[in-house]
Amino acid sequence: MYDPDQLTRDFKRQREIRANLSEFNKGVVFDALASANITKVLVEFDGEGDNGQIESITASRNGANTDLPPTAVLVQSVGWGATEPVTTEWSLAEAIETLCYDYLEYTHGGFENNDGGYGNFRFDVANRTVSLEMNERYIDIHTTNHTF
Question: pTM for this one?
Fold first, then answer.
């Protein structure tokens, strides 16, 4: 039998597990960036019409653009309904991209729907922070009626 309360509890539990894993994965990403002497990372994304993607990942070292190293990192993820994380080896670029998608899902789930949204993530390695700038698109309609 369908239990909407159980579905809500499962959704909240899954969200909590994923938030904890994102914190862990954030640490892994920042450790790898620091080891490569990367000081900043800019990740740009865009979405609309039910499609959304990471557009670019730009790394810099003391203000000069540089390539991300081909470093492999061990990240954790969990499938829907699962409670135990699975550890997987990903490239640093894949780990950054996945972390950004997780943050988008957490803060702006559906950023790619309808008119969509765009923006960027800024990774500050020294402060170990990720900042999100989100721009949501929408159509504004102003309707007036007159009877004469």
Answer: 0.84
